[in-house]
Amino acid sequence: MSNSSLFSTTISTMKLLSTVVSATLPRTRNTSLTKPVNFTLKHTAEFNLSGTPSCVYWKETDWVTDGCTLIETNSTHSVCSCDHLSTFALIMQTKPSENDHHLDVFSMVAETLGLVFLVLTLLTFALCRKNPRVINTARIQLCISLLLAHFLFLLTQILLKSKSLQPHKLACAVMAGVLHFLFLSAFVWMFIEALMLFIAVKNLSRPKSKQRNFLNWKLLTVVGYMIALFVVGVSAAVVPEGYGSEQCWLKQDKDLKWSFLGPVSFILASNTILFSLIAFSLGYSLAHLNSQVSQIKQTR
Q1: pLDDT in tens, the chain (300 residues)
Q2: What is Dmax (Cα atoms) for the chain?
Q3: Is the pTM of this model over 0.85?
Q4: Beta bridge partner(s), residue 18
Q5: Which residues form the GAIN-B domain (predicted)?
Q6: Domain 4-93 identical in fold to domain 98-299
Q7: How far apart are CA 146 and CA 99, in angstroms?
Q8: Which residues, in sequence order, are CB contacts of 233 under 8 Å at separation 6+?
Q9: How far is CA 141 from CA 148, 251, 253, in A?
Q10: Distance between CA 232 and CA 238 in Å, rounded?
């Protein structure tokens, strides 16, 4: 299809480098392939090899890269590999945004600083004197999950920028699965920490003999990671091709994002409710502990 105006995109800096090619299989609605298909696109004009084109397919209103990889390119032709049939083209970012570059640099610096402070936090937990009545399991595991997740994310971004990860689809999919597990684990530990805080506040208003004991830290560790592992395991079993997008994350066209957004939304909503209950219980408990002290001051 030589009339590229039919495929107007919302990204103004995107330029089509080839004619649009569409491929289908007759008498079937299945567009996925057991093996990727390779095809060569001829450039409509020569371009500077310092830039890198992208193999894309048309999805409703925009060109997307999920499932398509650039194998090789020169000044006149490019070879693409896609795991499904669709309407394909070759595009290039004509004017790389300076703001995007600054944002990438800021993101890298922020990730590095975050890793440093997470390490310092874990050292604080390891070296400072422990209170036997306080269980820091959830906070420690939260820091470990975030440390590993952000380290792997930073490593993935570095490999993507060096173009050394794109050809290895399996490695990219595995990294996406591990990132899914680690970030999901972090949210699970946030929920467990909120739940333990709620139990601690409720114990303030109970006699010591009727206070509920906290869960064993070993059991907490198993439960915290098994929940995230279960979600990722089910997701990988149901939609195995949903991992490994162009950014080595969950593919947008497979609706696998809800295996992350769903649990996260549930945890955020639950923690909001727990926070409200904790604030109410804390105010009530402190008011009864010392009636001579202002309830507002205690609650603050």
Answers
A1: 656 566 665 555 577 888 889 888 887 776 677 888 899 999 887 666 556 788 998 887 788 888 888 888 888 889 999 888 888 998 886 655 566 678 888 888 999 999 999 999 999 999 987 777 777 889 999 999 999 999 999 998 888 877 777 667 788 889 999 999 999 999 999 999 999 888 888 877 665 555 555 567 778 888 889 999 999 999 999 988 888 887 888 887 667 889 999 999 999 999 999 999 988 888 777 666 665 555 566 556
A2: 84
A3: no
A4: 43
A5: 1-98
A6: no
A7: 27
A8: none
A9: 11, 28, 32
A10: 10
Indicate the residue type of 274: L
DSSP result, the chain: ---GGGS--S-TTEEE-B--EE---TT----EEEEEEEEEEEBSS---TTS--EEEEEETTEEE-TTEEEEEE-SSEEEEEEEE-SEEEEEEESS--HHHHHHHHHHHHHHHHHHHHHHHHHHHHHHSPPPTT---HHHHHHHHHHHHHHHHHHHHHHHHHTT-STT-HHHHHHHHHHHHHHHHHHHHHHHHHHHHHHHHHHHTTS-GGGPPPPPPHHHHHHHHHHHHHHHHHHHHHH-GGGB--TTSSB-GGGTTTHHHHHHHHHHHHHHHHHHHHHHHHHHHHHHHH-TTS-HHHHH-
Question: What CATH number does domain 4-93 carry, 1.20.1300.10, 3.30.1490.20, 3.40.50.300, 2.60.220.50?
Answer: 2.60.220.50
Q: Residue ranges of the domains in the chain? A: 4-93, 98-299
